[in-house]
Amino acid sequence: MPGSILEEVDHLLGAVSTRRTSTRLSCPSCGSAHVAQVLGDNGGISYVCTACGHSWS
Hints:
Blueprint: H1 5-22, E1 35-39, E2 45-49, E3 55-56
Antiparallel strand pairs: 1-2, 2-3
């Protein structure tokens, strides 16, 4: 158990930071990290690069 509330906050912020970097997508066409998740035609999930317009699922 953490000795203080500050230690707990540091622990939680570290977990969030790790989660964000581990799930970051990049465009397979241009390599940009500017990717949006969109609903696909048949209800699936697709991705669109907002930098170059490339889409994939």
